């Protein structure tokens, strides 16, 4: 096979938040680990599509989370470094219903940055200003 650029589907998106985390899915009364890797909150450069969460497993870059943000998406703290949320994960043969996921971060600061980024970019809350670490919610109090 000839080598060339790899198409990921993220070419027309900008990552406004990235962090290493572990992804868990709530199944049959318990949490099942889905993988560890880099989580990204991508926003479309065109502004015509929804922002989405994308996570790929470390090592083989297998897609383990691909979920659009939605207006009523609720993030709940879990333990000290985790957050839970419900979404439709658009990968593989998964069902097309809301599923509860948990993300565990290295520390509470990263978790809080993630929650702020998701709140900023949920459907219906997008603005012309892109949130980056340089202009995070802590930097501006309207």
TrEMBL record:
GO biological process, one term: protein transport
InterPro entries in the cross-refs: Ran_bind_dom (IPR000156), RanBD_NUP50_plant (IPR045207), RanBP1-like (IPR045255)
Entries under Pfam families matching the protein: Ran_BP1
Signal peptide: none
GO cellular component, one term: nuclear pore
This protein's UniProt keywords: mRNA transport, Nuclear pore complex, Nucleus, Protein transport, Translocation, Transport
Principal location class: nucleus
Residue span, RanBD1 domain: 1-119
Subcellular location: Nucleus, Nuclear pore complex
Top-rank taxon: Eukaryota
UniProt-recorded name of the protein: RanBD1 domain-containing protein
Native source species: Zizania palustris (Northern wild rice)
């Amino acid at each position: 096979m000839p080598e060339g650029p790899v198409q990921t589907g993220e070419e027309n998106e900008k990552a406004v938040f990235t962090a290493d985390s572990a992804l868990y899915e709530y199944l049959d009364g318990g949490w099942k680990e889905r993988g560890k890797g880099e989580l990204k909150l991508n926003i479309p450069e065109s502004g015509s599509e929804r922002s989405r969460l994308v996570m790929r497993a470390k090592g083989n870059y297998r897609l383990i989370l691909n979920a659009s943000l939605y207006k009523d998406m609720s993030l709940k703290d879990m333990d000290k470094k985790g957050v839970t949320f419900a979404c439709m994960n658009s990968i593989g043969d998964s069902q097309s219903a809301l599923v509860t996921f948990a993300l565990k971060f290295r520390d509470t600061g990263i978790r809080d940055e993630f929650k702020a980024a998701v709140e900023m970019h949920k459907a219906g809350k997008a603005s012309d200003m892109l949130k980056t670490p340089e202009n995070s919610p802590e930097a501006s109090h309207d």
